[in-house]
Structures are given as C-alpha cells and as structure tokens.
Specification:
mainly alpha, 219 residues, 0% strand, 9 helices
C-alpha cells in the first residue's frame, strides 16, 4: 500500500517518530548490549554451537541470511529480530521474572525485560500499520516508555547518553512528509521479520539450552 496516498497529519508524524525511535536508538541500544555481552569474534562460534545443539527436526530460529550477517561480525547490520534471538539465546543475560517471550511486569526493569519491551513495541506498531497514525496521548505514553528503556540500557552498557539524547530530540524535531514516509515505510518492510519472530515464539526450542558453554564473552 503506497504511503503517498495518505496526507501527512500530526498523528502520522507521531507514528513516524515512534518508528524512528524503534529503528534508531532502540535498535542501537540492543546492538550495544550485544557488544557488551559478546565480542564479534566469538559470536559465529557460539552461534554454531547453539545451532548444533538444537533438537533434531526443529526449525532453526536463525536463517541462512542471518548466519551470513553473523559471520560478517558487523553488529551495525543486525536488526531487532536477530538481536533478540542472539541476546536471548547466546548471551548470559538472566531472563526477566515472567520469562523470555512474555510481556514483562511493569515493575521489572531488568535488562532482559527491556530487551523484551523493545521487541514487543516493534511488533505492536507493526500490527497497527493499517492505521498509519498514533494519537497524541498514545504517542506521549509510548515515547516516555521508550525513553526509559533506552536510559536504563545505556546505564547497563555504561556508555554516554547519546541514545537517550536522540530519543529526546526525535520527540519534537522537524519531520517533513518525505522523512515520515521513509521511517513508516521501513517499519512496513519488516513483515518478513515479523513472521520470523512469530515462528520463533511458536517453536519448541528450549531457548536457554543448559550445558552449552560459550566462549570469549565480553565482560
């Protein structure tokens, strides 16, 4: 569906801002967490070990295309679905109180809970794409939640405040129609990735496979 058929409004701008935060600072925060947990040089081997220990006849949660991305060692090309799989399965991040794959409780501010929230927010707005709009109240609430997530992940990473500063900037920065369509369009193009996540959530793979030893993780 061509976005050019629709007029730009305050509510479509809200959607574009959320898309920009999800695809920008939130994704970069997950990349930074992965870099903290696992050095790029160690990732291909540890993914290979994980894949080799999957139950027989189980659909792999990592595609061949994603395996090529992993081999490149360039985390800047990893998207949210791939980052979620790696952070959940290959790293040693403790799962949140309600377990991986489930919506965390509001009071749970753990790293895994925030990783889960980013995945869920991305999926939520993909599911609402037929409306191409977010009301002001919903936008403000979502912006506050995304800002808190990024602040907490940056605190865990021990980095600067660049990502949270970007979230603050996106809240009110000028966005013309072309920019809006760019970011909404990017979110629309993730249908294939959405299907991967749905498949991942329905698989019977025990994501935290006990007994597997991964090497050279970052501290």
């Amino acid at each position: 569906m061509a976005l050019s058929k629709y007029d730009s409004t305050r509510e479509t701008t809200n959607l574009a801002r959320v898309a920009r935060i999800i695809l920008g600072p939130c994704t970069d925060a997950l990349r930074a967490v992965l870099k903290k947990e696992m050095l790029p040089a160690a990732l291909p081997h540890n993914v290979k070990v994980f894949m080799a220990n999957l139950p027989k006849y189980t659909k792999p949660p990592i595609s061949k295309t994603q395996l090529q991305q992993i081999k490149s060692g360039d985390y800047s090309n990893f998207d949210i679905p791939l980052l979620y799989v790696l952070l959940r399965n290959i790293c040693s991040i403790p799962e949140h109180r309600l377990k991986w794959g489930n919506k965390p409780s509001r009071t749970d501010r753990s790293v895994s809970a925030n990783i889960e929230r980013i995945r869920l927010v991305r999926n939520e707005y993909y599911g609402h794409m037929t409306h191409f709009a977010i009301k002001d109240t919903e936008f403000i609430n979502q912006w506050k939640e995304l800002l808190l997530i990024v602040i907490e992940l940056e605190a865990y990473i021990g980095s600067s405040t660049d990502l949270q500063d970007a979230v603050k900037e996106i809240k009110s920065c000028p966005m013309d129609r072309e920019v809006e369509q760019k970011f909404i369009g990017k979110l629309l193009l993730i249908e294939e990735l959405q299907d991967r996540i749905a498949s991942l959530e329905n698989t019977k793979v025990p994501f935290l496979l006990k007994g597997i030893k991964f090497t050279n993780t970052a501290t």
